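Quick one:
INPUT:
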């Protein structure tokens, strides 16, 4: 008996959580935040707890698996993005089982969540036996954070491939390529749980190497001798930051990373020796504790490039603080602001970002937007994945109804039939195979 419980992420981009029930055992895949609701709560400055987050739909509602709680053997986390790992802090203590994840994600959990669950570290491209009947394997994929994986769950009925958050990047700037060889070897995939985030985007998602060329094109062609240079990207996007660091060096400036979330992700990566930013750049965790230093830097902005948090317009992040004149570091007319990210398309985040851009315009900054490539494969990448894996069934996940329907339409083009072997679910529903 195989049951798939869609706990979260089947009606929105984020809040990912799926439970796989196999006879008398079960395991949980991911425990993520719905960032839009989480950011909205942060702004209200409410002291958060599990109940508030649940009532506001910021974390998955695990009621659907309440009756099988005793069966759950492990919480498996695919990668360290908050929409996959951010709810661990609030939800994992309710489960008496270990968390199984890659070393980088484990480091991030350890740093950001105080929980008693045992954390088991398993390298990418390695397997781990959870019980007599259950084994998982972390298959390395390219995405936009170190050590991202697809999770293969081997069951007595065949393999389940949890394939969220992946792209097929042949020129990653950090880490290894997607392990296509291993994916090709899988010959008994009963179910693919597929990433629908970009299923509605035609074509292929370009390599991280393209983002580097975009940044290079801007940084090497601008007249900016005396002007300040501010860049922002996702705090977790270590590969992009590595590119920025190199290019900033090439134009003869010194990189300064500012912001707590940047600091957390960078420190986790440094601890595992994936990168070494601190020998080549300044890292400032708390801007308010570094007023004197920032004041000095503000007097000779042409010597530095500032990589800051706040690309989504988060009100407490560094870029908003600078735009609000709350720090010693200022934005002057003609200073350059590069957004090396896309705006997460949810209401609170879009509104915040718009407000930030208006403030930057009032300061007469030169603004560069969408200097970015996505970490999620587009429609044709997803088609290739389905070809490579040839799953018997496909379940669309990590998207709202429109995005999941796009994935189902793609599968339909490839011969799958809706309701028979390609499936759509809502949060709280269960699929039997
Ligand atoms: Zn992700």
């Amino acid at each position: 008996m195989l049951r798939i419980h869609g706990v979260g992420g089947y009606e929105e981009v984020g809040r990912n959580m799926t439970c796989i029930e196999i006879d008398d055992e079960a395991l949980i895949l991911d425990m993520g935040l719905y960032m839009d609701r989480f950011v909205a709560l942060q702004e209200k400055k409410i002291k958060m707890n599990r109940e508030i987050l649940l009532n506001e739909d910021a974390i998955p509602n695990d009621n659907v698996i309440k009756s099988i709680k005793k069966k759950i053997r492990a919480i498996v986390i695919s990668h360290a993005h908050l929409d996959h790992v951010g709810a661990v802090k609030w939800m994992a203590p309710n489960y008496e089982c270990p968390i199984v994840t890659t070393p980088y994600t484990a480091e991030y959990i350890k740093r950001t969540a105080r929980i008693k669950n045992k954390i088991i570290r398993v390298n990418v491209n390695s397997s781990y036996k959870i019980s007599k009947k259950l084994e998982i394997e972390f298959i390395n994929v390219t995405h936009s954070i170190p050590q991202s994986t697809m999770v293969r769950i081997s069951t007595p009925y065949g393999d389940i491939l949890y394939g969220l958050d992946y792209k097929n990047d042949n020129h990653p700037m950090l880490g290894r390529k997607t392990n296509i060889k291993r994916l090709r070897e899988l010959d008994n995939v009963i179910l693919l749980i597929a990433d629908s985030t970009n299923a509605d985007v035609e074509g292929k998602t370009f390599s991280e190497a393209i983002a580097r060329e975009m940044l290079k094109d801007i940084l090497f062609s601008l007249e900016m001798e005396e002007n300040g240079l501010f860049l922002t990207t996702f705090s977790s996007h270590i590969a992009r930051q590595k590119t920025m660091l190199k290019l900033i060096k090439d134009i003869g400036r010194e990189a300064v990373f500012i912001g707590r979330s940047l600091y957390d992700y960078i420190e986790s990566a440094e601890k595992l020796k994936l990168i070494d930013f601190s020998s080549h750049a300044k890292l400032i965790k708390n801007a308010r504790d570094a007023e004197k230093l920032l004041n000095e830097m503000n007097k000779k902005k042409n010597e530095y490039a500032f990589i800051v948090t706040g690309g989504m317009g988060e009100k407490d992040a560094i870029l908003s603080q600078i735009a609000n004149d709350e720090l010693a570091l200022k934005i002057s007319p003609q200073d350059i602001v590069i957004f090396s990210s896309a705006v997460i398309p949810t209401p609170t985040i879009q509104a915040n970002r718009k407000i930030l851009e208006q403030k930057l315009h009032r300061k007469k900054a030169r603004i560069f937007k969408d200097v970015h490539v996505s970490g999620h494969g587009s429609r044709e990448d997803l088609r290739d994945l389905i070809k490579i894996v040839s799953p018997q069934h496909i379940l669309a996940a990590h998207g709202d109804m429109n995005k999941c329907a796009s994935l189902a339409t793609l599968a339909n083009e490839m011969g799958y039939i809706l309701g028979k072997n390609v499936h759509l679910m809502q949060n709280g529903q269960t699929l039997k195979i």
